[in-house]
């Protein structure tokens, strides 16, 4: 199991907008971050957020944003895959979901071709 705190703190600070410590994250903080994104969290949102956090703790950071999107699409294919994910996170399931989950953005996440319009 990966220790998210060691991974994030290896460089001394978290990327912009990310929390320094996984322990700093809470459902209340997630609600506030979602509010900043104009998202009202539903059970479906929480499923994605919890999946991302669990995966990060088990496997560590993904090599890039495309890998995260592929992972999400595979896991949520029964609910509608990419279409479902974009319905939940309209500015991009990788960027918005990782932000709300309190996780660092994977490298190359600002590429609009897979879910970021930042």
The rough form would be described as: globular
Low-confidence stretches: 8-20
Q: Structural class, from helix and strand content?
A: mainly alpha
Order of helices and strands: HHHHHH
β-strand percent reads under 5%
Mean pLDDT level? 82
Count of separate DSSP helical elements: 6
Largest sheet: none
> How much helix is in the residues?
40-55%
DSSP strand tally? 0
Q: In angstroms, what is the radius of gyration?
A: 13 Å
How far do the termini sit from each other? Answer: 31 Å
Multimerization state: single chain
Describe the secondary structure blueprint for this structure.
Layout: H1 4-9, H2 27-36, H3 43-59, H4 65-75, H5 81-88, H6 93-101
Helix pairs in contact: 2-6, 3-6
């Amino acid at each position: 199991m990966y220790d998210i705190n060691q991974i994030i703190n290896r460089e001394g600070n978290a990327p912009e907008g990310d929390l320094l410590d996984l322990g700093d994250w809470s459902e209340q903080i997630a609600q506030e971050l979602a509010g900043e994104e104009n998202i009202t969290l539903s059970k479906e949102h929480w499923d994605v957020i919890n999946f991302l956090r669990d995966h990060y703790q088990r496997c560590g950071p993904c090599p890039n944003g495309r890998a995260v999107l592929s992972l999400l699409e595979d896991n949520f294919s029964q609910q509608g895959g990419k279409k479902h994910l974009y319905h939940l996170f309209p500015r991009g399931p990788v960027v918005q979901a990782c932000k709300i989950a309190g996780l660092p953005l994977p490298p190359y996440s600002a590429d609009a071709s897979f879910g970021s319009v930042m």
